[in-house]
Write a structure and sequence with these properties.
single chain; eight-stranded parallel beta sheet
Length: about 625
């Protein structure tokens, strides 16, 4: 099916999309400071990108990179027993990967591949498949070779350096800004063309007689958790495609960083993964000489969660300086789950973007579901100002947790595996004070539950420990042995229902005083509850998380979009859109959706922005 391309007139910037909708909503915040998502209605349709059957295996990339990425996706997905041939590209992968790798199709690459075939008589052996962007598709009867054989074939032949275009004494930089819904596989969308580039080309500084470090590419992320997550994903199956990959997280000391860079003189680093401050502040201040040599050799740069990185209160100035210092940079990829007017304005402040716009080398690639409600999520609004909840968010929270536990007990009575996995609940609050208040209440209400909080002050080690059960999940064999347990006692004979609410769950609170034994009478409950702020709303890939609670409406639409993006993510059992034929034994029908509960009170319902969010949920409109 032919995808559609739309051209949006933004400083000569090309914008690609599958579809845009005229449905829109204006969304403000309590402080009435305007925060608007960019309205992308004025566009033309025409796209030439096409991936046969939308299958990842049909992407026109080298076989070694394709095999590497497919195995990484398979290792990361929560859906087991799947064939890599069945994995589909997400919308953003279909749109962005073919467009980005087109830049690899150069005369020097064609000559190199011809030389490889000539040197090793590949035309006679029929053993090497190189589906590059130059359409070098082999005979269907050819036999695939594994990674080791591939590199044996290349031994003795020097790969070409990427041929840059020089314009007005400066290298022309190709910039791709990707925008796609949260949890849609953007990490795979930027890693695939990056690995493809690193496999096909060498650094022009390789084998030079000097004592300067060589770092070929850098991936910048806004938080330490995302640095570790991206590195762990790449290294799931060991070092990918013979590349040297380093991460500089908060636990890497300045001396360790300098040591790694010193080693790169002999063994060039292909990818560095870090926050901007690690290089633009720490390294630059500690060893300006190494910083200068590093920036002079970087060819490829990825900015993930770019709208946060380019915030004027964040890393904008540091990144602007870093990108200006990269004299041999030829490619930049920006990724974000939201594209705001403020983000586009900040992009224009980067000198490298200004030049790319002038030369028509900046492409913005978006999907049809950008800024749109995920149809795999069931949304519930709980108005605690109505009925027996007496305008108490905390009582409403306790009620929701009780209903989740009761539903899981009903659905998984005979399956402790799913009972354990889906009794993990994530709670978002707007402030640190709200997090602490919620924790105190739940510890009294559920003394035997495993309740954790994660805030800005939480240490790195504690963050790893707290996040582990949410970023990973036990296999069926590791789940606790089933034990007979007493049913949940009914503490009230009569149940009331919340009027004017779209959640059908009984009210079990009859007074302002709620005791823990009202719900769970001295009984150990296998419930894990994580309470946090927006510190975990960006990019974190939670696994098999089915229940998300918003203690209050978030302050702006960006926060709402990224919070609800923690569920139904790419490759998770809650979102099965990217697999053509799932044969997993644990693909239970009830796994296919997740639930988001938002608690509002009497004051919230007076504001238009709360009513607008309800409309977006009800009518599946975009938040623009």
């Amino acid at each position: 099916m032919l995808l559609s391309k739309k051209i949006f007139k933004f400083s000569q910037t090309r914008l690609y999309s599958t579809l845009t909708s005229k449905d829109s909503l204006v969304y403000g915040i309590r402080e009435k400071k305007a925060i608007s998502l960019s309205n992308l209605d004025d566009v033309d349709i025409n796209s030439k990108t096409h991936v046969k059957d939308n299958l990842f295996k049909n992407l026109a990339i080298t076989s070694v990179v394709k095999s590497c990425m497919l195995n990484l996706i398979k290792a990361d997905t929560t859906i087991k027993n799947i064939d890599t041939d069945e994995i589909k590209c997400s919308d953003i992968q279909c749109l962005s990967i073919p467009k980005i790798i087109q830049k690899n199709d150069t005369p020097v690459l064609r000559n190199f591949l011809d030389l490889v075939k000539k040197e090793h008589e590949i035309s006679k052996l029929n053993k090497l498949e190189d589906n590059t962007a130059s359409n070098l598709v082999s005979d269907p009867q050819t036999e695939h070779v594994n990674t080791a054989q591939y590199y044996n074939l290349l031994s003795g032949i020097v790969k070409p350096a990427y041929p840059v275009n020089i314009h007005e004494d400066k290298i022309d930089v190709d910039i791709f800004s990707i925008g796609a819904e949260t949890g849609s596989g953007k990490t795979v969308a930027f890693l695939t063309p990056l690995l493809e580039y690193l496999v096909l080309y060498r650094s022009k500084f390789n084998n030079e007689k000097n004592s300067s470090p060589i770092v070929r590419s850098v991936i910048f992320l806004p938080t330490n958790e995302l640095v570790n997550q991206t590195y762990d994903f790449l290294m799931k199956n060991g070092t990918p495609v013979h590349l040297n990959i380093k991460k500089f997280d908060v636990q890497v000391t300045p001396s360790q960083m300098i040591s790694s860079l010193r080693e790169s003189v002999e063994d060039p680093i292909d990818v560095v993964i870090c926050t901007p401050e690690k290089l633009t502040k720490s390294l630059k201040n500690i060893n300006p000489s190494y910083y200068s040599h590093l920036t002079n050799r970087v060819e490829y740069c990825v900015l993930d969660e770019t709208d946060i990185l380019l915030d004027k209160n964040g890393s904008l100035d540091g990144l602007n300086g870093f990108l200006k210092d990269c004299k041999n940079l030829n490619t930049v990829i920006n990724c974000s789950g939201t594209i705001t007017d403020n983000y586009l304005n900040n992009l224009k402040e980067l000198d490298i973007i200004k030049r790319a716009n002038e030369n028509n080398r900046h492409q913005i690639i978006i999907t049809k579901n950008l800024h749109k409600i995920n149809n795999n999520i069931n949304y519930y609004n709980i108005d605690c100002s109505i009925g027996a909840l007496n305008n108490s968010r905390l009582k409403a929270l306790g009620q929701i947790i009780f209903s989740i536990y009761k539903k899981n007990k009903r659905d998984y009575t005979n399956d402790p595996y799913f009972m354990k996995i889906f009794n993990r609940i994530m709670v978002f609050a707007n402030t640190k004070e709200s997090v602490l208040e919620t924790e105190e209440y739940l510890r009294k209400l559920l003394p035997n539950a495993n309740i954790q909080i994660l805030i800005k002050e939480t240490s790195v080690e504690d963050r790893k420990r707290i996040l582990h059960p949410y970023l990973n999940y036990s296999s069926r064999d590791e789940v606790f042995n089933k034990e007979k347990s007493n049913p949940i006692p009914k503490v009230l004979k009569n149940f009331e229902w919340i009027p004017d609410s779209n959640i059908k769950t009984p009210i079990i609170f009859s007074s302002d005083t709620v005791f823990s034994e009202d719900i769970f009478i001295n009984r150990k409950q296998d419930i894990n509850i994580l309470i946090t702020t927006d510190i975990l709303s960006r990019g974190i890939n939670f696994k098999k998380l089915k229940n998300l609670i918003l203690m209050e409406p978030p302050k702006n639409v960006l926060s709402f979009i990224h919070r609800i993006g923690r569920v139904c993510r790419y490759g998770d059992t809650g979102n099965v859109n990217y697999l053509s034929n799932i044969k997993a034994y644990n693909n239970n029908a009830v796994e296919k959706n997740a639930s988001v509960y938002m608690i509002t009170d009497l004051d919230d319902t007076k504001h238009n922005w709360v009513r607008n969010i309800k409309k977006a949920i009800t009518f599946k409109k975009k938040f623009i």
